[in-house]
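Hi U.,

Before I forget, here's the chain from the pilot set. I'm dumping it here mostly so it's searchable later in email.
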Amino acid sequence: MIVNALSISGIVFASVLGGALLGMFLRSALPKHHLSEDSKSVLSLVMGLIGTMSALVLGLLIATAQNSFGTRNAEFTQLSANIILLDRVLARYGSEANNARALLRRATAREPQLVSPSDNGLTQTALDPRANRAEALYDAIQDVSPKNDVQRSLQTQALTMTIDLGQTRWLLFEQSGTSIPGAFLVVLVFWLSVIFAGFGLFAPRNTTVMIAFIVGSLSVAGAIFLILELDQPFQGFIHLSDAPLRKALAILGE
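Structure:
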């Protein structure tokens, strides 16, 4: 995903900067009356309209990515808390549930890899709940024979919590795709390129202007990169913290 985000950001940078350079080229190619003050006033109005729409779409994308990141972070934290609660319930059940507690600990020990990706990034398979073998944990709890009403109640609670853990993990798996519509990005980049083309149309050709265009293009590309990174919280530079799971792992078995 890091490579993908960098690639898209590079395309955005090239498109926006290319728009500015196209505008500077058109300045020398267009007849003089096309660059009059009246033309400049009309163009400023159009650029203002496009700029407003671009700001709205950019704000929407940022809000969408941030909400996606926050939702998955809350689900991941809830998953860690439920693991601790399940271990406490099994501990209260007694020594008969030690096998189930050992399975829970082994399964939890594999979870931090979700938010500590390798250099190659996290694959869709790593998020697949089937790789976590939650069914084995459920079967281990189901196989325990309760001896009294208390153990029977604890077994029912443990089974329900195991199902909840599976539901949360499946939810994270289903949400592993992007929530940013590609059409939004395409339209936004087009609008920004048009805006920079308008800037370049009336900008003088000097080093300061070129540096300003480059910095502006980098800023836009950086914003898109951050949006894409927030939208994929299990991989990349901006990913979820594995602290909740590691805390849960340290508590399990006590």
